[in-house]
Amino acid sequence: MPVRLTLLCLAGLFAGAYAQAADLARLPVTPFVVLPDNVRHPESLATDPASGEVYAGTFDAREPAAARDNQLLRFDADGRLLAQRRFGATPLTGIAFRDGKLYVLNFGASKLQRLDARFTAGTPVEDVVMFAALIPAAPPPREIANPDGSQDAITYGSQGFPAINGMVFDRAGDLYVSDSFQGAIYRIADVATCRPCHVEVFARDPLLATTGALPFGANGLAFNADESILYLNNAGDGRVLRKRVPDGAIEVLADGVYGADGLLFHQGLLWVAANQIDTLVALDERGRLRHRAGDFLGVTADGLPRGLLFPAASVVQGRRMIVANLALPLTPVAGDEWEEDVTRWNLMQFDLPDPPPHAR
């Protein structure tokens, strides 16, 4: 059985058990916008809370590299396309809005970049800082105690490529960035004003690396309301983690969230884009499932995903949440993934549920 189908079957059993216990209804998703022709694989999202403008960055990693056309897209609050800024062959991962600027993790170039949030096709892009290989390139082994009293040790490898992936600002203006291959979280202090900027290793732990079928470890990042806890996703392990700031140990909050990708904290809930089960899950701060949004409902005759297909990121705009359908094929086998049938890409939306009583 293909890896993705196996994960879907296991995840269905997992989600079904939760639904029976909590009587949870799945929140329906509807289309927000279809991306322009030849723009593919929206991976990251951000929004300007004042104007409601929505930004999307793409992860176009096709081979050969000359075929790629990575872009930043800018939409108004209702989904009308305002601008496209091309980045060419280098795929983009995280994007974040801050004080009129859009910060971009240029995965392919190992750079943090920024540009004016009201960008046009020709707006200059500024390099902020480069990311480099760590020494050692991989985190230490993970020691696992088994129920029978034996011990396992998972040893990680890395070629030293800084796989910058997710990011989040704190209120002070420091930026935190995940590295999916080297098992690290970085901090860049005063990123709007630093000259030059310095990349500090804020955390490094075997829980941030993975040997899973999905080869990305540390991924989405989010702070709780008072910024005393940094939440982190491990996509390959299907885990949501947490770390008390600044010096707490990294702990497991929730397991079984297959393909835990983008992460967003909003009104007391952690919204996790579970890209391998085509849904968003909302967890409370104890790790208990509270909501599920979206499902995969097929591919239209026009090549568009219906529902969610490999959701990678979400962003809040008023009383709704917008979701990026990355729809990225992973395996080299032809015919085993619905993502192969997608020829147009889209962003979806759903109405946010009422927040938990303690978060109102």
From TrEMBL:
Lineage start: Bacteria, Pseudomonadati, Pseudomonadota, Gammaproteobacteria, Lysobacterales
Protein name: SMP-30/Gluconolactonase/LRE-like region domain-containing protein
Extent of the signal sequence: 1-21
Signal in keyword set: yes
The organism's place on the tree of life at top rank: Bacteria
SUPFAM superfamilies: NHL repeat
Keyword annotations: Signal
